[in-house]
Amino acid sequence: MRLLTTLLAVTASALFAEAPSGFTSLFNGKDLAGWHGYNPHSVAKLTGEKKDAMLKKMREEFPQHWSVKDGEIFNPGTGAYATTDKDYGDFELTLEYNMAPKGDSGVYLRGVPQVQIWDPTDEKAFKHGAQLGSGALWNNSPGKPGKDPLVLADKPAGEWNTLRVVMVGARVSIWLNGKQTVDHAILENYYDRKASVPAKGPICLQTHGAPIRWRNIAIREIAGDEANRILASHGKAGFKSVFNGKDFTGWAGPVENYEIVDGAIACKKGKGGTPYYDQDLTDFAVRLDFKLPSGGNNGLALRYPGTGNTAYVGMCELQVLDDNYDKVKGKIDPRQVHGSAYGMVGAQRGFQRPIGEWNFQEVTVVGSTIKVELNGFIILDADLSKVDMATVMAKSPHPGKDRKNGFFGFAGHNDPAQFRNIEIKDLAAK
User: Fold this and answer.
1) In what helix (H) or strand (E) does residue 264 lie, and over which residues does it extend?
2) What 3-state DSSP class applies to 77?
3) Fold agreement between 13-222 and 233-426
4) Which residue of 16, 31, 301, 378 lies most exposed, with the fewest beta carbons within 10 A?
5) Residues 342, 316: contact at Cβ < 8 Å?
């Protein structure tokens, strides 16, 4: 009897393990506390009372489809998805799953589909790419990074697989059974391809017609500083530092209106102007960290000629603005929010870190196009040659909009905005 009790204890510990250091268990091994039933597809087109009724129905029916036994969550392939009560921003997620043969499932990230799980031997699903394996972002557009897994890493259906996901902004990296299947790919917003995925959202365990079991589900929330380091560690090839962290060597313009504070370029309070890196550029990418005070306003000068107001004589002033600016200082036009090509094309909003924290941003300028990635989210992807100048803010002329070359710099507006880790990659054809 004592031997049997010991064996049962060992078996239970193998099924349900404590969360790794720094992680929080999303499943306690006993019940479904912290989870509810939700299927985003079921409510995507609903509003008002109909949406509320559907949400209520999925929650009420959740226990009929999901159960817990022997330290595992089980679903027979029916019902709404098991969804965390809590929403998450940047995170590292680990879990194990065991799916029936010919099964199809997935993990929704911030409520967006999905990390694909399926049986790579199911010939009926080969037309959808099942033979390539699980662990990729199947709902991404064809040909886009992350759509298909880098390697086939599945264990046979009926065996336990280990999944690890790191999500920073919309950037996702995935490992299946210790092999990397997605490397820092953008997760597209299935519900609106023109918009980034939400800044926060739940984790959903999809049920899709086949029995599946889950266990050892744990998450570690990633703070801003670590998220910035993760973003900066990818795609570094070709970038060169243009600021030494000590002085304005290599810079021109009104540098006297700025100062060096803890290794960062800071606009002096009440000062401004456009200091710029003294190298003429055509196509380029720039990476930097920025930090703003409450209501802070600055900008990035793109293809600036060296004199004049860069918002009009340069290709554009790319806004650097507190996301809560209108709440602090007053109403603004949508083409003034952070990341916008000032007055011409508005950026998506709501992806800045809290005031006082550093943000990571990469801007790519090629021909007449500008792409802005903030904290891992694409917030602007615009072609200025297609802007109808009759509709721009205040109908102001932008004579520099079509410039082919110029300098990169900052456009201070009296607020002590700070910039550091400034790197530029020359993209001009050699």
Assistant:
1) strand 264-267
2) coil
3) yes
4) 31
5) yes
Cβ atoms of residues 77 and 205 within 8 Å: no
pTM > 0.70: yes
Q: What is the C-alpha to C-alpha distance for residues 161 and 154, in angstroms, rounded to an integer?
A: 7
| Domain positions in the chain | 13-222, 233-426
**For residues 127 and 379, what is the distance between their CA atoms, to the nearest angstrom?**
33
Q: What DSSP line would sit under 315-336, residue for residue? A: SEEEEEE-TTHHHHT----GGG
92 strand-pairing partners: 166, 220
Report the alpha-carbon distance of residue 140 to residue 261 in Å, rounded: 42
Tens of each residue's pLDDT in the chain, 430 residues: 443 333 333 334 445 577 888 999 999 999 999 999 999 999 999 999 999 999 999 999 999 999 999 999 999 999 999 999 999 999 999 999 999 999 999 999 999 999 999 999 999 999 999 999 999 999 999 999 999 999 999 999 999 999 999 999 999 999 999 999 999 999 999 999 999 999 999 999 999 989 999 999 999 999 999 999 999 999 999 999 999 999 999 999 999 999 999 999 999 999 999 999 999 999 999 999 999 999 999 999 999 999 999 999 999 999 999 999 998 888 999 999 999 999 999 999 999 999 999 999 999 999 999 999 999 999 999 999 999 999 999 999 999 999 999 999 999 899 999 999 999 999 997 5
> Which uninterrupted H or E stretch holds 287?
strand 284-291
Q: Which two tokens stand for residue 105?
A: 């499932």
Give dist(CA 407, CA 307) in Å, integer. Answer: 10
- The C-alpha atoms of residue 61 and residue 65 are separated, in whole angstroms, by 7
Rounded Cα distance, 303 and 317, in Å: 9
For residue 41, which amino acid is it? H
Q: Class assignment of domain 233-426?
A: mainly beta
H/E/C letters for each residue in 92-107? EEEEEEEECCCCEEEE
Residues 6+ apart with CB under 8 A from 111: 38, 40, 83, 198, 201, 202, 204
